[in-house]
Amino acid sequence: xxxxxxxxxxxxxxxxxxxxxxxxxxxxxxxxxxxxxxxxxxxxxxxxxxxxxxxxxxxxxxxxxxxxxxxxxxxxxxxxxxxxxxxxxxxxxxxxxxxxxxxxxxxxxxxxxxxxxxxxxxxxxxxxxxxxxxxxxxxxxxxxxxxxxxxxxxxxxxxxxxxxxxxxxxxxxxxxxxxxxxxxxxxxxxxxxxxxxxxxxxxxxxxxxxxxxxxxxxxxxxxxxxxxxxxxxxxxxxxxxxxxxxxxxxxxxxxxxxxxxxxxxxxxxxxxxxxxxxxxxxxxxxxxxxxxxxxxxxxxxxxxxxxxxxxxxxxxxxxxxxxxxxxxxxxxxxxxxxxxxxxxxxxxxxxxxxxxxxxxxxxxxxxxxxxxxxxxxxxxxxxxxxxxxxxxxxxxxxxxxxxxxxxxxxxxxxxxxxxxxxxxxxxxxxxxxx
Length: 434
What we know:
Strand order of the largest sheet: 9-18-19-23-22-20
Low-confidence stretches: none
CATH architecture of the largest domain: Beta Barrel
Number of strands: 30
């Protein structure tokens, strides 16, 4: 064999070897930076040679068990949780070069009361939401737009006028007219940022009072589905997505809110290209179920005044983390026209590995013939319906596919718990342990 051929062979071997390493490094770079496990359950990771996972911290939070599969040239790493807390693992190349850090959160075994109840939601906003801007005709017959000219925009949340906290839409009008046309200072929130505007009201020729050309909203109401109740704290989660203003698409900030019992009065079936809807009424003659404290992209949360019972699951059941969820059969709990919680068959068609919170964690398809006859699939009002698999709560329904109402998205229960304020799923709480 010539020297040139030897060099080609050596180069080819090195090229294949380092190409293999590069592909695997790329795979690990995409690997989740955080892993959530529950005490007593653990998680299995498949690691290919020449990579390895080590416990990079001296603690007693997790233990690593390794089993080699020489036929497939990989190792099966099992993360065994020992106690609640947080630790870091490290992926290494050839046992030397650090590739990536994995943060592992160990949560205590948690059981929840499943929901499925139809609930009414009443929300008074914190301040008022600007949903429209219009021109004002002054006494000089000229057109003015004081709010827009002063810097306000649709979607802004007005919280104070001249240092006075805004209570509702009527209060806004009162504060604007208090100064008889003098310049006012308006404090507002926009995309989480605090802003201040100086605006000069104009006396309206039509209404004979001072205006700045705003349409505002201070409350909303709707129907959804309860997802869970944590039995010890009575913290609940529902909907799996935010309550947003229909005109602006902005999440409504919670000033004061409650959830109430709701009764389904009719169902508009979902069809391709047009979402269906469960229509309900609030039972305001009965005591409210709980206080509404948080309205987030990942659901609404608060505290129940008392524990509700689930007629199907008499006792609280365990949760499942995303790595425990399987493609295939599952159940949802929801309330339709018979006004009782029922269990219906669904199929988990896709599971998205997620590093951060999202309300589109998995794709769910309704296969239950009874539910399809009633609703046509997933409809408005079913958001928050808990998803059960292997007798564990894995998430909740959040969105419908408009072009195929038999399918929709679900959110992982672990994301809802992190948003809920349940202490054992609070990162600050984890950081204080171990």
